[in-house]
Amino acid sequence: MGTTRIGQTISLHVKENISLYLFTIVLFTMGVCFGAVIVNSLEQQQKHDLMNYLGQFFTEFKQGTNVDPQTAFQQSFGQYIKYVGFMWILGLSIIGLPIILIMVFLKGLVVGFTVGFMINQWHWNGLLLAGASVLPQNLLVIPAVIIIGTAGVSFSLRLIRSRFIRRGEAVSPYFFRYSALVLFVVILLCGASILEAILSPLLMKPIAASLLS
User: Fold this and answer.
1) pLDDT reading at 1 higher than 50
2) What is the rounded CA–CA span in Å between residue 185 and residue 147?
3) Where are the transmembrane segments (predicted)?
4) CA nearest 14: which of 177, 179, 192, 165?
């Protein structure tokens, strides 16, 4: 019953905010493209420093000194919860609306920069590495960010309408729907953390070994 209700809430939310979803997806995509462009604008010294950092990380990863699934899950899930919790709080205020949009854009920028840098430095091996290290968890993280970003913007717009256009309009039903979507996003991010802590390291290990050989 609870699962059906959450599904109905998500379906109704998407139907009511389809234009906002399209805008959020475009904004995220712009962030990805901008992040990929930034890679080409890096100075050689900056690329060298990043390569040294990644080389040290892969060396430790290959030796197994930094692979602890439980710790990795806790750190990953903790970061995701802080990110989503902050976006949820921003959605409860009018002034938080532009910050939510900035966070969606920046998330896309980080993904675009990470994937773009790996491909720029290692070409096909970089593409494989990005697929192993970035893709699994982001199959859930990206939809989660788009959902919570759109829901936050939608609720913030509801607040604006209730205060300045339709004064006295009840926002409590939308608040409960907004909070239900946040719970759904938390479930997605829990799954993303499991993938990041368990699946990604398994996929990355042979690729990291080939890069260091």
Assistant:
1) no
2) 7
3) 20-42, 86-119, 139-160, 181-204
4) 177
